[in-house]
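DM from R.C. (forwarded with permission)

"hey, sorry to bug you on a friday — could you get me a structure for this? deadline for the figure draft is monday and I only need the backbone to look sensible"
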Amino acid sequence: MTRNNRVTTYHHDGMSSYTMDPRGGSGGGSISGYLLHRVKPHLPPWLGVAGAGLAGALGHERWANSAGAGVGLTLASVALTGTTWWVGRTTGKQRRLHSAITVAAGSAWLTAACLAGPTTGPIDDVYLMGGPGVALSWNVRMAMRRNDTDGAGEGSDKGLLEKVGLARAQIGTAKVEPNRVTAPVALEPGEQTNDDVTKALARIASALDLPKSAVRYTPDPDSERRGDLVIVPEDMLSEVVEWEGPSNLGGSIAEPLVIGRYDDGAELVMWLPGDPETGRNSTHLLIAGGTGSGKGDTALNVLTEILSRRDAIVWFSDPKAFQDFAPLRAGLDWDAEGGTQTEVMVAGVEAAIPARTRWLGAHSYRQWVPEAAEVQNDPEHTCRSDGRACGCPGMPFLVAWFEEAANTLRNLGDDTFTGIAQEARSAGISLVVSLQRPSYDQMSTSTRASLPSVIALGCDPRDEGFSLPETVIDAGAHPGAWGNRRPGYCYVVSPGIDEDRYPSPGRTRRFTIRAVPVMERLAAWAQHNGAHADPVTAGAVSGVAGRAYTGRTTDTDDSAPQPTTLRAVEEEDDMNHGGLLVDPEDSGIDPEEELPDAEEGDDAPIFGQTTGRKPSPAEARQLFAQALEEFEDAGEMVVGPKDFMDWCDRNNLSRPWVSERLKEAAMAGRLEATNTTGRWRIIPALTAA
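My reply, with the result:
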């Protein structure tokens, strides 16, 4: 390992004991000291050979021709060899065998030298030839210890595993890539499991002096004792990369969305539609992260990629009035600012799902593919019974995005997205839900289980399990370690991404003030070149949303409603600075005319007043029908008794009377109950008819 022009030498225990500066000598600075240091690790075998020779000469002086000494030396030789074999059970097979043979040969020669003499017969020749051979065999083994692939791990890797409690594990040949090392690990059969490695990741990171996020373990799905240990020594995410534009302007939504990079420099990508050729499923996306974690920039990375594709439309709800997304608003097919508008959008998505599913099935698509967005000129994808090409307009991919979804869930109920999440994928719809804390009190378990993809940013350590699967956390992913200290750092779990990438941290690009003009140009491009809702989708949503849904408009479309981005600055002044100081509805009353005679019901209590005239049943139906038309014309498609307060005042009607009329309208098919008690969704007049 090389750092700061210093070379660290590792010994068999895996720890370094000496550091040399390549520009000079050893620790003392002399060449002789450096050479002595390089020789030291190879001296023990030679010292052992010399010691055995000296012991043989001294033993012969004392025990020459002694039968008792011969028995004792023989027993000691056998016992020492057996002990060596027993102690070596925790090492590799080759090392154990090599050690036992060395001890057996050395003790046998020593016994013979002590009894017969070191220079008797061939004893001295065996010593002169065998001794250096044994010493050199250990020198060769030591020189090759870093390339040892027998699984013993005599080098630094084995020493490292010993220190973290995995002494019997075996490490295979490591795959070295730029800033990434992947080493296969085989654990002791019957003694260790993959869980032992995941529990030791923090200790491995400590031994390597790396952050915990830099060490990951990917278990082999076919084995409980095999997997890959991944080490990323340098954090390449520390450098902030600003967003400069989409990666694939005019491409298909089926192509990868590039949203950042991994810590080893590879691109961080994901997909929303499925791919029947590769077996990738379509997906929904959860974006989760605490305050200050970079969730807004992450969402902008994903949204700009989607808007830059030619065959996708976006329906977007943001209760924060598009605080972060205003430059992109003109490129959206439908935008809502929360509350009633979002409630209508949810109903629109629910209505679009069966309509789009029927269209795809009628054109022989088992799931949405890019060809479905083109004009249907292929006889294999025709809805005609005679088999000829039908020429139907294509159906673009639909992304239904709910920003700050916790607000929507509180207002509409816990299971608002459950049905959408479970059914939308087959209709070429991806649901994107963004919120800070996807806990079970914020989102139902059924909805959470239906969101296969997640971008998990920094969070409270206690919330990690709400964002990421347990297996990914066990493999080393810990967004809780970042909190809000590293904005944009994230883990991405999504179909199409290799599973060994799941615990690899990435970082999304940052959006600054310099990105605003580029986003505005992207929105303008989407207005003129992006997809528009197909007739099937537009018809389905208009059937429940009425005029609340206008679709994406362009600057050259004079007949279309004005883009929603301009509505906020075109509010009319409520004050009338000229003309008669009377209400328009009273302008035709002659002040000199006598009041009409009292009619039946004039003294009945009404809302906001003590007395009032109760209309006849025919008048009541007509008044209420007009009220619903007024709300529909204004695009307010979800109403309740509180919305009629001003209307009641104008028409001298009570709130209980309105409640009864709402129930009657629901029975007549003009209204439909919503998930919120006391709230009704207006069914457009043409649809109701």
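R.C.: lifesaver. The chain has a mean pLDDT of 80.
me: no worries. The chain has 21 helices and 23 strands.
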